[in-house]
Design a protein that fits this description.
146 residues; alpha+beta; GTP Cyclohydrolase I, domain 2; 4-stranded antiparallel β-sheet
Length: 146
């Protein structure tokens, strides 16, 4: 057999060698859809003296090890943190822009370490009578450098 350094044999063998085993994961989505609450939100003076009905829809993609679920609430990421978080925002100080509310909700969605992606949709329901709602959609992903 020729010398590895001269023939390129070791380079070829490295290419043919299977890659190192990686942890196998799977993903699932947590969903809170069409939550309607009264929020302190708006830029206009008449909006600052009352609450407004806002619809919130959240989807959070969670990454977990690829193994069967254990039938135990402590073994999963529960959607309960989404419900409690949105309810807390209904009691928070006045926010002017839906974009700011959406950004805060996005941070909430991505707060568990297993959360890798989120989609937030917030809509004011009483602004345009001809529409079911007007609002914004914001998406974001976990920064993998953390």
């Amino acid at each position: 057999m020729p010398d590895d350094s001269q023939s390129g044999y070791s380079t070829i063998m490295n290419v043919l060698r299977p890659p190192p085993a990686r942890a196998v994961t799977r993903r699932y989505d947590l969903v809170l859809r069409d939550y309607v609450g009264d929020f302190h939100i708006g830029v206009w003076d008449h909006e600052k003296t009352r609450t407004q009905r806002v619809r919130v829809s959240l989807t959070v993609t969670v990454e977990v090890p690829n193994r069967p679920f254990v039938d135990d609430l402590d073994a999963v990421v529960s959607y309960e943190y989404l419900i409690q978080g949105v309810e807390a925002f209904t009691r928070s100080p006045h926010i002017q822009l839906l974009e700011v509310l959406a950004e805060k909700l996005l941070a909430l969605c991505l707060s568990p370490p297993q959360a890798v992606f989120a989609r937030v949709q917030v809509e004011k329901l009483e602004i345009v009578p001809q529409a079911a709602g007007v609002g914004v959609v914001l998406t974001g992903a976990r920064d993998h450098s953390q």
